[in-house]
Structure formats: C-alpha cells, structure tokens
C-alpha cells in the first residue's frame, strides 16, 4: 500500500509539472492531428476501393437461425 501511495505522489508531481509546462496540451494536439490524418487516409482508401457500405456481410453460416430475444 505504501508503494501505491509513493507512486501516486510521484505521478501527481510529474503530471502537474507537465501540465504547467503545457506539454500535455501539445501531446493532445499531436494525437488529435494524427487521428484526423489516419481517418482521412482511411476514408480515401474506402472511396478508392469502391466500398460504400461499412456494415459486415452476414452469411447463412454465421447468421443465427432463431432471432435473438429483445
């Protein structure tokens, strides 16, 4: 238990320092930018492949024969 408290204190101290220096905001902005780039590339790939539907194909082998209860 004492190790958990020590680790929490260290993590809090380091987190506060990073927050005060603005490093967390830079990290968040970088992460959001990378996500948007990846999303754009994925959308372009889907448009190039001609796939307009993102729903999975259900075959008779995987579809249940009895409807699921609501």
Count of alpha and pi helical runs: 2
- What is Rg? 23 Å
Strand content: under 5%
Which structural class should the secondary elements be placed in? mainly alpha
The biggest beta sheet, please? Answer: none
Distance between the amino and carboxyl termini? 45 Å
Order of helices and strands: HH
Shape: flat
Question: What percent of the residues sit in helical stretches (DSSP H or I)?
Answer: 55-70%
Layout of helices and strands, plus pairs?
Elements: H1 2-21, H2 23-49
Describe the structure.
- The relative contact order is 0.05.
- The chain is flat, with a radius of gyration of 23 Å.
- With 70 residues, it is mainly α.
- Helix content is 67%, strand content 0%.
- Residues 49-62 have a biased composition (Low complexity).
- It comes from Sphingobium olei.
- This is YtxH domain-containing protein.
- Residues 42-70 are annotated as: Disordered.
């Amino acid at each position: 238990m004492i190790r958990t408290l020590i680790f929490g204190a260290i993590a809090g101290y380091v987190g506060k320092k990073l927050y005060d220096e603005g490093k967390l905001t830079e990290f968040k902005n970088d992460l959001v930018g990378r996500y948007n780039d990846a999303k754009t590339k994925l959308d372009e790939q889907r448009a190039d492949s001609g796939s307009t539907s993102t729903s999975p194909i259900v075959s008779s082998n995987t579809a249940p024969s009895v409807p699921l209860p609501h």
